[in-house]
């Protein structure tokens, strides 16, 4: 079950290396795989057959749960934000492939979605679907953090800085917990908001970390031509794809910080490529409608 093969770091330049977590599986974003691993083992141990989770229309987490469910023998249910998608999900590559992998999709309004964690709503879902193992939006919980503690291995202790994108904070928490005290973990939030630090403190056992809030490009899933250009030239130069929501923004940020002398001379930096590549197709559909440059 969920054997994750650690990948060799890839050299980008003299001081910057990349850990290609996106290569752990073609369908599941690297960090989503890590986050699901112990949750699925627990579900199996509890003899639970069904997983239910929440997400938006382009969610890597929804894609990962649907695929993992098919691969490891769970029924899956995805509660999706936005009633308007009910008749349009065929046009959305993430939802289309989730459904293809056997996920039942339930579309709810943004109001209902906002209150998704409340007991009444969960009870309604149990009446509709029977018993299930609930996995939180984005998949962050103690077991997810435990899975992310396995991203860094002993060879990574040579790095001074470890950088990763941040959504709900589970991934960075795992990195912090397994880092060495001489290392600094830098998170690049993909969204605006001050709540993240508190969320990370719930899981992180050390203080050797910080968030760099300057590279969210206006908020979650917001992008512009400059970011697309950066992602495309990075791909041409290194033959490594970046996604527009997480890893593209982080890498843009790292390059910008390097240019501005943020890192002390000769610092060794490791960037965690957390995956998310399944989201490119959906984003490109949006870009095409808006007559913008497409992501390679
Ligand atoms: C979900 C996701 C993240 C954020 O992970 P969190 O644990 O929620 O902070 C980063 N990168 C990619 C590609 C993701 O899919």
What descriptors fit this protein?
single chain; 296 residues; alpha/beta; Rossmann fold; six-stranded mixed β-sheet; four-stranded parallel β-sheet; 11 helices; 10 strands; 16% strand; globular; binds pyridoxal-5'-phosphate
Please provide a written account of the structure.
The protein has 296 residues and is an alpha/beta fold. The protein has two domains: 10-27 and 145-289, 3-Layer(aba) Sandwich (Rossmann fold); 33-139, Rossmann fold. The protein has helices spanning 30-45, 60-72, 93-100, 110-114, 119-129, 142-148, 170-178, 196-203, 225-238, 247-259, 279-289; strands at 10-11, 16-20, 50-55, 75-81, 104-108, 133-135, 161-166, 184-189, 209-211, 269-273. The strands form two sheets. A six-stranded mixed beta sheet has the order 1-2-10-7-8-9. The mean pLDDT is 94. The chain binds pyridoxal-5'-phosphate (PLP). Keywords: Pyridoxal phosphate. It comes from Hanstruepera neustonica. The active site is at residue 59.
Computed Rg: 19 Å
- Which small compounds were modeled alongside the protein? pyridoxal-5'-phosphate
Give me the CATH fold name of the largest domain.
Rossmann fold
Strand element count: 10
What's the average pLDDT? Answer: 94
N-to-C SSE series? EEHEHEHEHHEHEHEHEHHEH
Q: From the 3D coordinates, which CATH architecture of the largest domain would you assign?
A: 3-Layer(aba) Sandwich
Q: Strand order of the main beta sheet, please? A: 1-2-10-7-8-9
Q: Level of helix content?
A: 25-40%
Count the helices. How many? 11
CATH class designation of the largest domain? Alpha Beta
Number of domains: 2
The coarse silhouette is globular
Low-pLDDT residue spans: none
Outline the biggest β-sheet: 6 strands, mixed
GO molecular function, one term: D-cysteine desulfhydrase activity
Cofactor: pyridoxal 5'-phosphate
Organism: Hanstruepera neustonica
Keywords: Pyridoxal phosphate
